[in-house]
Amino acid sequence: MTYHPHRDQRGSMISQSSESPETSIILPPPPRSSDEKPSPGVLRAIQLLKDCHQLVLERDWNAIRLQPDEYDELWWRLEEDEEELLGYIEDKIRVGGKKSLDYDPGISEFVIRKPTAVHEHLLASIRSDIFVQLDTIRKCNSSAATIARKIRPFGSADLHLEDGAKRSPDMQFGDDGAKYPGLIIEVANAQQSKKDGGGKELSKLADQYIVESSGNVRTVVGISLDYGATKKATLSVWHPKYGVDEQGKYLAAEETIISQEFRTGHGNRVPDDKKLQITLEDFVPGDLLSSACPSEASEREIVIPYEKLAEYLDMADARDQLSRARQGFQMVMPAGMRKRRRESNSTRDVRLGRRAQVSTGRVGGREG
Fold this sequence. Notes:
The chain is of the alpha+beta class. Helices cover 35% and strands 27% of the residues. Strand 2 (13-17) and strand 3 form a beta hairpin. Mean pLDDT is 78; it is low at 1-28 and 195-200.
């Protein structure tokens, strides 16, 4: 009997018998030694994570090449040698959602995404608008309202796709019982997208989300912001496309709205009646929606005019500038009020130890 080992997305060895292809045996990874020199890719990944920890990570999209076995090695070395850094990653990056880790074994790409303040403020406004309009649908007396009540935000939680890739979308919504979100919204730096061909490029992300979820991701909305010499902002939308070619039936991602401008390079709002329209079909799989009775389009649509998107972006820019200048309204502490910070564990332990010494009559190692 012969075995053909290969690695899963975390790098664990899987052996498949050539005599029984249905049988898989998961083998433990080979023993490692901390004396082994890390690969250059792992060293670069650890340094990027340290830069993130020390708040000196400059770019919002940081991609490096890591083979699956190097990705496995990265986590092993973090667990063995970088306990403090690993704790930060688990607490602030993978769970906190402010920074995200992506890994795509298909192209051996490891990415640290650091959304900017403008990204976060813009997404917060869009999320709030969607919430308000969903609530309006939920209050209607219809089967569409029943479906709307099950739509939940998934935040930027990890999304595990069928090709083994792990992504952390900027924003996602879906039915609370569905495996995949129906709607994903991504905000990208236009200049960074061009530099990192295949990295944060929105069209490639949209293609992966839709195709590698077997079409369960119904809609991807991409917002591209130009952080160069202009203030241009554009919007693109992708949906699943089903067709037939010479090889048979296929599923693909189709860009139905292509880089439409909603704020000009001079920072002006586009003066027309264009709008982003999101229906309930964009949130949930078609099978769930097909059971709903037909209703008025306005009852099943969420509409955000381009002018409103530009307004949200202007608000995000203004908030970012205010924060950078350390300005804005604030409460002033009353005169004579002092700040009392929480004591660290080490300081409290020393103080309590001294109290114990005084109460027992032992100070400085002598009887009192």
